[in-house]
Amino acid sequence: MGEPEGKAVSNGLPPPPFELPYPDSPDVITSNLLRLAELTPNERRRFLAKNLISHLHQFVRETYLTTQEWEEAIQFLTAVGKTCTPLRQEFILLSDVLGVSALVDAINNPPVQGGTESSVLGPFFTEDSPDLENGDSIASDGKGEYMYVEGRVLSTDGTPIPNAKIETWETDGNGFYDTQYSNREKPECRGRLHADKDGRFGYRAVVPVAYPIPGDGPVGQLLLGMGRHNMRPNHLHLMVEAPGYTKLVTAFYPEGDEWLESDAVFGVKKSLVVKLEEVNDEEEARKRGFPKGSSFKLLQRDLVLVPEAKSREVFEQNAKEAKKNAPVA
């Protein structure tokens, strides 16, 4: 940062149109800030600001936070920011391990009868997935044990949804996403395809494996300090979009993994735990495009999307209930 130039200036806003007592006590600090929050023009932002201030100040008072603890928290958040790169989002990882990502997901995607339940996006989604045709592979050969994924994209009433876009990504057989390799040259173990006119889709992949979320950064240190493991059960990510339907971000978790119930980011839901069928048939393997061997795992599961109007109705109903029962800041 260079030397400042010219005269220092304010942001142009005047003093508040009301008097505030000097902040000579903890309670006055909070009440002054809540009054200032009332100046927020946007109603939703005003609501969020007042509640954040109330809960944050209440936490400081309840815990009698020390100056050293405050400094350590600032240093921790600074380290989280410095760890972020275009391919690594440490703040999403922090949100994940604190259960905030799962909570926001659960609130914004309430279960609707018949619809596939959602799961957390996670920090490893990228925009550069290659476009594939049905039957193609998202993984180069040698990236792991063969798996074939197939199903249909349907509406909650059972109607097939043609041409739905499906983004999918996973770890390789070593438990790493492609973005974790320093020599990444192209997307790997990820792809983008579309359901056919009858809503059917299918693609080759590899059996995902359980893996540790990054432990070399501040979030990893946080988990160690809390005495928590950093493992995620094996899973396959899917994100499905179609006009008129709520975007589905989900994942399928093969049964039998020891980390299912204590997933470090709280992403597993019972309905998303799936069974992989063992297929040992060379003719079937070749038919599905696997270049060698006779065995592969088969994951058969439909993806059921919820109409936007229905999702909005359930969300707004739940929001009204929550607002009615929530304390007012």
Automatic annotation (TrEMBL):
Q: Where is the Catechol dioxygenase N-terminal domain?
A: 42-114
A Pfam family per the record: Dioxygenase_C
All copies of the Intradiol ring-cleavage dioxygenases domain together span: 122-284
Please give the superkingdom of this protein's source: Eukaryota
Biological process terms from the Gene Ontology for this record are: catechol-containing compound metabolic process
The protein's UniProt keywords, in alphabetical order, are: Dioxygenase, Iron, Metal-binding, Oxidoreductase
Q: Which InterPro entries match?
A: Catechol_dOase_N, Intradiol_dOase_C, Intradiol_dOase_core, Intradiol_RC_Dioxygenase
Is Iron among the key words of this record? yes
- Enumerate the cofactors the protein uses: Fe(3+)
Annotated stretches, region: Disordered:
1-20
**Is Cell cycle set as a keyword in this record?**
no
One GO MF term attached to the UniProt entry: catechol 1,2-dioxygenase activity
Q: Which family does it belong to?
A: Belongs to the intradiol ring-cleavage dioxygenase family.
Q: What is this protein called?
A: Intradiol ring-cleavage dioxygenases domain-containing protein
Q: Which organism was this protein described from?
A: Pycnoporus cinnabarinus (Cinnabar-red polypore)
